[in-house]
Design a protein that fits this description.
Length: about 140
Amino acid sequence: MKATVDWTGNASFKATSGSGHSVQLDGPPDHGGENLGPRPMELLLMGVGGCSSFDVMSILKKSRQDVTACHCELDAERADEVPAVFTRIHLHFVVSGNNLKEKQVERAVSLSADKYCSASIMLGKAGVEITHSFEIQAAS
């Protein structure tokens, strides 16, 4: 896997993935940024949510659950000192669908947390406390 990051002025950078997709990164205005894109640590947090959400949906599809929506809310805390690493991340899944089985949703979230989500497992091994929860809603 490869990626590039190119400075585009002030505290702004263009990050490009090996598959050719780009994201504009920027710093906060008090650090020379113009708020043109997410901060790098925000992008890392979004990556954790995306990685785990991908797993959860894949597992639920394989277990033939009729999912109509999957929403992952992430809440993170960072250290006060530099480096301001993540110290805690909580992922809360809101899964909507028709006749969803609670045990299947719980299994999907657990498998992502314990076995499949490379991003959260990697951060957990680095000392970040990572927790998960879920709720099920009927399809609207």
